[in-house]
Amino acid sequence: MRMRGDGRPRAGSGACYGPQRHSDTALLWVSVDPRADHPSQGTRPTGVARVSRSGPAAVALLVLLCATGVQAQAPAGRGGPPAAPTPRTQAPIDLTGQWVAIISEDWRWRMVTPSKGDYASIPMTPAAQKVADAWDPAKDEAAGEQCRAYGAPGLMRGPTRLRISWLDDMTLKLESDYGMQTRLLHFRTPTPTQGAKTWQGVTAAQWQFAGGGRGRGPRFGSLRTVTTQLRPGYLRKNGVPYSASTVFTEHWDVHTETNGDRYLVVTNVVTDPLYLQAPFMTALHFKLEKDGAAKWNPEPCDARF
């Protein structure tokens, strides 16, 4: 141990010292030299504490000063515990960006409002058909219900663009220009407000991992989301209903072509014990827009189109 003439540790010693006795007290010196990791920097002043000569007290304080002093001087990002992983850092696929719907199937139901009674392909119950047969867009407008076809199960099948971004490390935000809706995908378990049902509901999200990990090659996967707490709305714009008991499950996958084009495939499953005899399953396709800002076209809900 290198000491100065006054009993203090010399610069560059990079350690904790003590006790050094002076008459009826003991001096505890804490010296942490940042030059060990940053050679171009000078030495910071050492710390000193004066306590009784009592052995146990001196040793206890020495341990405390060593721990706090070294921790305070430790360079950022070195020597500390690694940052905890988050859904954002663990994402096996990148969903962020602006995606445009590819309407290559079911055009007559997705691009225009179908006529009353056009319920083909939806496994409706008799109760659902009764509601749909009574559909009247003018009544929806008068009741302020013009967004009934823009709830999460109906919106995703519309002629929309989606903007997906990270709201924070635990939450993805999904925005649509069609109907100007926003839905949050929560990777931590959300706490739904009892009785507060909304068009976009409450969505719980979870990554589904496959392959890779622990040096076994690339890791890939997909996203699974489950949406509940939905306000009753329409699966199809001509009044085909879904109820407040609906559970809307989605599986999100991203595919990249050899030319760099990226596609988002969302497989949807709608279950509703009141209005569906069986799960209603569809697959939706979107393409990433590299110049999407100029194409974003927010339009409010419309009960007729």
Record the strand order, biggest sheet: 4-5-6-7-8-9-12-13-14
Radius of gyration: 31 Å
Total beta strands:
14
Portion in helices: 10-25%
Largest sheet: 9 strands, mixed, barrel
Characterize the structure shown:
- This protein has helices at about 55-75, 85-90, 105-110, 125-135, 135-140, 150-155; strands at about 15-20, 25-30, 45-50, 95-100, 160-170, 170-175, 180-185, 200-210, 220-230, 235, 240, 245-255, 260-270, 280-290.
- It is of the alpha+beta class and about 300 residues long.
- The chain has two domains: about 15-75, no CATH class; about 85-210 and about 220-295, no CATH class.
- The strands form three sheets. It has a nine-stranded mixed barrel with strand order 4-5-6-7-8-9-12-13-14. Strands 1-2-3 form a three-stranded antiparallel β-sheet, covered by helices on one side.
- The radius of gyration is 31 Å and the shape is globular.
- The termini are far apart.
How is this structure best summarized?
This protein is of the alpha+beta class. It has helices at 55-73, 87-90, 107-110, 126-133, 137-142, 152-155; strands at residues 15-22, 25-31, 47-52, 97-101, 161-168, 171-176, 182-186, 202-210, 220-228, 233-236, 240-242, 247-256, 262-271, 280-288. Mean pLDDT is 81; it is low at 9-53 and 61-74.
Features:
305 residues, alpha+beta, 2 domains, nine-stranded mixed β-barrel, three-stranded antiparallel sheet, 6 helices, 14 strands, 15% helix, globular
Compile the SSE list and pairings:
Elements: E1 15-22, E2 25-31, E3 47-52, H1 55-73, H2 87-90, E4 97-101, H3 107-110, H4 126-133, H5 137-142, H6 152-155, E5 161-168, E6 171-176, E7 182-186, E8 202-210, E9 220-228, E10 233-236, E11 240-242, E12 247-256, E13 262-271, E14 280-288
Parallel strand pairs: 7-8
Antiparallel strand pairs: 1-2, 2-3, 4-5, 4-14, 5-6, 6-7, 8-9, 9-12, 10-11, 12-13, 13-14
